[in-house]
Structure formats: C-alpha cells, structure tokens
Amino acid sequence: MKTLEVEIASQTLHVLENGKKIKTYSISTAKNGPGEQWGSEQTPRGWHVIRAKIGANSPANAVFVGRRPTGEMYVPALRAQFPNRDWILTRIFWLSGLEVGKNRLGSVDTMRRYIYIHGTPDEVPMGIPGSRGCIRMRNENIIELFEAIPVGTRIFIK
C-alpha cells in the first residue's frame, strides 16, 4: 500500500510503499509556512487523503482555474500578461483533511481551503517555500505521481 509524506522543513515529498521510501521529489510549500487556518495561505499539516484527481490526459503546462482547464497553455509570456495569477498547471490532487478540528471542518478544513498538490511553471524554484498554501511540483513529476497514486491515498504533511 502506497502513502505520501510531505516534509515542509526539507521541501520534499516522499512516496512510501509499506512504510519504505521508494521515491522522493523536490517540492515547494507555502511561503507563509505551515498552518491550518482559513485565509492563512499556509500549508496544512497532519493526515490527509487525496479526495480527487483532476487533469487526467491534460498536456503538460495546461492551465487550471477553479479546478477547470482554461484552454490556455502556460508560457512565460502568459505570466507577463497575468502577473498575479496563481499558476496551477498540468495535474491536481485535491486534498481533504482527516483530523477533525486540526485540518477538517470549521475554519481549518483543508478541502474547503482548496489545498492541492499541483504542477507549476518550470521557472518556479523547488526546494524553497513559495506557494499560497498548496504543494507545488515540477510538471513531469506531478504527471508521474498522478499515474502512480490513486484517489483515496493517504498523505501525511509534517
């Protein structure tokens, strides 16, 4: 059985099989650090589950807004045109908290906060915090992970 583990301190995501690390990816979590509160733009901690997978068969660099493809393909010129857009590309894992009062329900609900693991532009640095709460990955890595990890997979963020 596979699970995922996100280490905020090292900015890594590990794929575990029967508790053993089998793959590690460099990621980028929230520039505001860890936290669970609504509106904080922080990465929530604790046990989560992948509630939905979005973007199957979309091309790399496909742009998503509100979990829907816009029909745009990300290129740096598009960033120049929309400099304040939070670029969600390629694939999305929508996370849901499993710990009532910590990351589920009320003002700490991960799913209602729209926290994802998603692809990001190639020029966005990995290994350092920089997102608005989500977990960013390289597009080729999110495609690989998307193929290997089913809905219902548990993820621990620490």
UniProtKB/TrEMBL annotation:
One of its GO terms (cellular component) is extracellular region. Pathway: Cell wall biogenesis; peptidoglycan biosynthesis. It comes from the Bacteria. GO terms for biological process: cell wall organization; peptidoglycan-protein cross-linking; regulation of cell shape. The active site is at H118, C134. GO terms for molecular function: glycosyltransferase activity; peptidoglycan L,D-transpeptidase activity. Keywords: Cell shape, Cell wall biogenesis/degradation, Glycosyltransferase, Hydrolase, Peptidoglycan synthesis, Transferase. Residues 2-158 form the L,D-TPase catalytic domain. InterPro entries: LD-transpeptidase (IPR050979), LD_TPept_cat_dom (IPR005490), Transpep_catalytic_dom (IPR038063). PROSITE patterns: LD_TPASE. Belongs to the YkuD family. This is L,D-transpeptidase-like protein. It comes from Aquicella lusitana.
